[in-house]
Amino acid sequence: VRASSAWSAASWPSRPTSEPKFEPVFLSAQEVEALAEHLAGHAPDDLFVRLAAYTGLRAGEMLGLQVRDVNLLRRTLDVKRTYQHTRDGWVESSPKSDKSIRTVPLRRMLVDDLTEYLAEHPHRDDPTAPLWPGRNYAGGGEWRGGLDWTKRMDYDSFYRRRFREAARAI
Question: pTM score > 0.85 for this model?
Answer without folding.
Answer: no
